[in-house]
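Dear H.,

Thanks for agreeing to be a second pair of eyes. The structure we're designing against is below in token form, covering all 169 positions.
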């Protein structure tokens, strides 16, 4: 065996130090494995096509607040710069579907330049509920860029609190 073959088979100094430290702490072993996985994932030799990994960019995804009381759910969505006509609300089998399209255009004209920026983005948020809803009483209010949807629970789905007595044995 030549010297170059011996050096090629021999672990590098960094690998030997990593192996030595892994024996000291199992967390280092996990960290080294994660580093290896990330290096492999971002290498040029990744086995999957980049075409399969790309997905369309979402320009806008509204933030939601969801709260629940004994009788209803409230969903608040931040939709700044949007109008009611750009928003659709659907209720399908106790699932709320909130969708819309945001269009923004900014134009600046000055003496030495003219700049126009446009951005478009559609969104859809799907919120399933584990309780039957009273579909006839669902309401929505849009004020100052915040959409608030009130979803009352169906009468038979409202859970009543009951105190259970503990018996002594």
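And this is the sequence the design step returned. I haven't edited it by hand at all.
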């Amino acid at each position: 065996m030549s010297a170059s073959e011996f050096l090629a088979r021999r672990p590098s100094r960094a690998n030997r130090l990593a192996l030595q430290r892994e024996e000291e702490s199992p967390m280092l072993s996990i960290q080294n494995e994660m580093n290896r996985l990330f290096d492999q994932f971002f290498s040029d030799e990744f086995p999957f096509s980049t075409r399969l990994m790309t997905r369309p960019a979402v320009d806008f995804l509204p933030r939601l607040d969801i709260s629940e009381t004994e009788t209803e759910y409230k969903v608040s969505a931040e939709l700044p710069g949007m109008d009611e006509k750009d928003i659709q609300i659907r209720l399908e089998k106790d699932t709320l579907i909130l969708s819309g399209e945001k269009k923004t255009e900014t134009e600046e004209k000055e003496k030495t330049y003219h700049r126009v920026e446009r951005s478009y983005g559609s969104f859809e948020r799907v919120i399933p509920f584990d309780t039957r809803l009273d579909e006839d009483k669902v309401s929505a209010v849009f004020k100052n860029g915040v959409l608030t949807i009130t979803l009352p629970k169906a009468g038979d789905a409202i859970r009543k609190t009951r105190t259970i007595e503990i018996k002594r044995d």
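Two observations from my side: DSSP finds four helices and seven strands in the chain. Confidence is low (pLDDT under 50) at residues 46-58.

Warmly,
E.
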